[in-house]
């Protein structure tokens, strides 16, 4: 089998947000917060209490897309909002607060206001009403359907309880990168995150772990497309996908599983990496044009010879068990 675990780890690093972009996002967050404070400080019907960076940024599964952009969720929280104020009015007030924060006009979504930072990222601003004395969970403003119970912090807590958090984050990023590299509508990043949390089987190799997860996801959606949010509001996060979109994704994941199996069975790492690149794009690194597993076996055999004092150095510099060479001195360095 072509072991591509190191290539996946390198790919994971490629998907991470750069330090310079993180600094830009921090400045953008503070700027937006200050705009919100200034806008609402004279409005008696509102009691702004702060912002909360949530979603994939909080779970550390956000990725840089192939166009080198990313998206963030910054929750806007109010302790008090007069009952006479509609959710649409609340969202419109937040829009007014940030409409000149960049040179690009923000957009009004059903559950947030979106602020654009051209060529870098965009920040979604969902709005919450949360008074602990009145609510068990935050109330999210839906422009068309009023207030809906939603708790991003509870989702982060649920996510962070996974037994293998590091691999969970990497595998989630790979699935998002696959979606980003593909044309057409795929399940949301939230759906991929929930699937990964619920169905990931830990493996020392990310390529194998991903392959096994893909099979689990396919098996699951062949039975039911219902993917429940694990915290309030406990809704189906795939409910908006059309039947055609579901069929297209089922075909896509079936192809991915078949090719992932070929990649794992390949003896040549370069050949295997070219298969993975079909799904992840050219940001996935090229492998070595050799049988990596055979090379590892050979190196382990040499190491065993050295440790057992049966190693001989040949004229070409190679170390073997061939007694025609020069016998190596006993190895006594055991680390520490």
UniProtKB/TrEMBL annotation:
NCBIfam families: cGAS (NF041078). One of its GO terms (molecular function) is 3',3'-cyclic GMP-AMP synthase activity. The keyword Nuclease does not apply. One of its GO terms (biological process) is defense response to virus. Keywords: Antiviral defense. Pfam families: SMODS. This is CBASS cGAMP synthase.
């Amino acid at each position: 089998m072509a072991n591509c675990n190191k290539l996946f780890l390198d790919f994971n690093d490629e998907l991470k947000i750069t330090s310079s972009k993180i600094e830009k996002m921090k400045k953008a967050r503070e700027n937006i917060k200050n705009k919100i404070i200034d806008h609402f400080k004279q409005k008696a019907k509102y009691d702004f209490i702060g912002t909360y960076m949530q979603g994939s940024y909080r779970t550390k599964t956000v990725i840089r897309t192939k166009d080198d952009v990313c998206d963030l969720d910054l929750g806007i929280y109010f302790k008090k909002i007069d009952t006479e104020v509609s959710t649409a009015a609340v969202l419109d007030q937040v829009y007014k607060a940030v409409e000149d924060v960049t040179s690009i006009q923000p957009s009004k979504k059903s559950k947030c206001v979106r602020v654009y930072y051209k060529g870098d990222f965009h920040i979604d601003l969902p709005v919450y009403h949360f008074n602990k004395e009145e609510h068990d969970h935050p109330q999210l403003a839906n422009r068309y359907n009023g207030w809906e119970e939603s708790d991003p912090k509870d989702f982060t807590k649920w996510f962070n309880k996974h037994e293998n958090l590091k691999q969970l984050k990497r595998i989630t990023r790979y699935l998002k990168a696959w979606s980003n590299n593909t044309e057409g509508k795929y399940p949301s990043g939230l759906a991929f995150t929930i699937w990964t949390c619920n169905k990931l089987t830990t493996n020392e190799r990310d390529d194998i772990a991903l392959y096994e997860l893909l099979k689990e996801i396919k098996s699951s959606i062949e039975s039911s497309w219902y993917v429940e949010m694990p915290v309030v509001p406990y809704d189906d996060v795939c409910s908006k996908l059309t039947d055609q979109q579901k069929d297209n994704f089922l075909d896509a994941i079936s192809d991915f599983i078949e090719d992932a199996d070929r990649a794992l069975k390949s003896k040549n790492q370069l050949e295997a990496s070219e298969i993975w690149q079909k799904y992840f794009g050219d940001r996935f690194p090229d492998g070595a044009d050799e049988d990596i597993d055979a090379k590892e076996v050979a190196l382990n055999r040499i190491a065993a010879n050295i440790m057992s004092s049966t190693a001989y150095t040949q004229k070409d510099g190679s170390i073997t068990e061939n007694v025609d060479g020069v016998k190596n001195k006993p190895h006594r360095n055991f680390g520490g």
